[in-house]
Amino acid sequence: MSRSGKPICIIPARGGSKRFPRKNVALLGGKPLIAWTIDAAKGSGLFDQVHLTSDDAEILKLAEQHGAAAHNREARLADDRTSVAEVCAAICNEITDGHDANQPIVALLPTSPFRSDETVCKAYEHFVDREGDSLQSVSALQHPPEWAMTVSDGMLQPCNAAAYNTPRNELPQSVRGDGLIMIARRGFLETHRSFLGPHTLAFPSPPGETVDIDMPQDLLWAEFLLSRQESLS
Q1: Number of Cα atoms under 13 Å in the Cβ half of residue 153
Q2: Does residue 73 contact residue 93 with C-beta atoms inside 8 Å?
Q3: Which domain holds residue 69?
Q4: Which of 56, 82, 91, 200 is the least buried, fewest Cβ under 10 Å from its Cβ?
Q5: Model confidence over 98-153: pLDDT tens digits?
Q6: Is the residue at 217 inside a domain?
Q7: Residues 6 or more apart from 129 whose CB is under 8 A from it?
Q8: Could you report the per-residue pLDDT of 72-97, keeping only the tens digit for each?
Q9: DSSP assignment of 85-150, as one string?
């Protein structure tokens, strides 16, 4: 159980992945993908316990081996359409004594292996200092969304025709939530079932930590980056 007032860390790691089967147990640098996130969470020193939730027996076993508390996820929470926020809200009652609406919930996705414990600490400090309802780590978009187009019957159509030809230097900087770190107060999460609201803080992610393992080629890229780090150390 987590002491009231302390942040709760939840790592959602379901077993199913259509684009990259078994990705959460894939090896990177000789250890399972989930272990990288468990280590970063533990290394931050912020949490009484790191909690990992999954519907997969192998993932749960590996989580325990790497020092996390493993929680079996119900089938209804392991669907493709189930959001991270819904999973986190549902598991809170399992891992806390009583109810504290202001208790921060920190979600760390296991597909971001290069997230550092220092970044976890900085994001949490930013959340506390700015007193937001929630926080999401963000990365800059490579291309402005105003340049997006659709294809219909082989024909191109700008999504935003009025802004499509605007020079890039006249467009606002756009970002995306990159999944590195998400934080919300428990009451907010239970009410909105989302990490995004009217008072959501943006936390810029360090560019070197934003590799996201979504496809097999992403893992190959991460292995290459890891080998470069080791050769330079």
Answers
A1: 0
A2: no
A3: 8-137+175-206
A4: 82
A5: 678 899 999 999 999 999 999 999 999 999 999 889 999 999 999 999 999 999 99
A6: no
A7: none
A8: 988 788 777 889 999 998 888 788 77
A9: HHHHHHHHHHHBSS--TT-EEEE--TT-TT--HHHHHHHHHHHHHHT-SEEEEEEE-SS-GGG-EE
